[in-house]
Amino acid sequence: MVDRPKKPTALAATPGLAPQAQVNISHSNSIVSAVLPSGEAVEILLYGATIISWKDAKGVEKLWLSEKAKTDGSKAVRGGIPLVFPVFGKAPDHAATSKLPQHGFARTSTWEFLGKSTSESSSTKEGGDSSVKLDFGLSSNNLSEDSKKAWPHEFGLIYSVTLGKEGLATSIVVRNEGESAWEFQTLMHSYLRIADISKISITGLESSSYIDKVSSPISTTTSPSEPVTISGTTDRVYTPARGPDAPVAVVEGGKKKFSIVRDNLNEVVVWNPWVDCKNIGDFAPLDGYKQMICVEAGAVKGWQKLEAGETWEGGQVITAAI
Ligand code: TA6
Fold first, then answer.
1. Is 107 assigned to a binding site?
2. Which residues of this protein are catalytic (predicted)?
3. What is the tens place of the pLDDT at every residue in 235-257?
């Protein structure tokens, strides 16, 4: 290259945009993954719009996934964050959803990837303050004939997963696209990864009403004014006394590992199958219950009713300690 005397000094380097999040679709269009410049990562299976992995900037996995989890679309994923809609559990006494499988059809339907939107700070500091929102859609048209027959209502769901440096947000918009009202329940069935179930306590559920699904008969009672600890099969639907924007936190060895705040999701389900996991065919390893705790934000007590054309939205933000 000819060297030119007196060539202009280099223009002050205009700070470029902060590096962007990388979003890919892989595994024959079945998995959407995103990685932030700072290293945080998330993977979502289009089957069920199930989050199957969420890693922090150091590559530490935050979600528990069974070693026997099916991610081939043959059944609901055992682990990660499956999505429950339009019914939580089974509702034999609720005519409109009584024919649906446990936890409804959202987690066993193939969703569409609607796209991504990123937000970068203008800052050029390492990694910026970037986050990326991934949107997924499901409507009556995506349903199997069986599901349509079991729940013949016109609906539209948009499920958004936002990966940020501080945490992971999931939110759902539910729309009644039909001509008549219907009602639903929804829940984000988060399997959080921990090191040792005997060392965790859950705060934010003190002095709160809860349904104990392990007791026989199932009972409704109020929790004591201290954190919840797990020492056996646990399956409880809490209505936290301090409301959705008061954090529910998983503390392990005295250190806060996860903190969850909610929007319009008034209930928090706490589930650990303990040694009963031996009766769950896709739960592995058999001592895996020691490394997981389900803390599930949902609207599952009673039913949300949508008139024709109405929309409902709810969500959660999970922050995880690095
Ligand atoms: O969220 C707790 C719960 O409703 C438990 O009762 C247990 O059934 C768990 O969900 C897992 O349900 P699944 O249908 O995924 O086996």
1. yes
2. 189, 296
3. 999 999 999 989 999 999 999 99
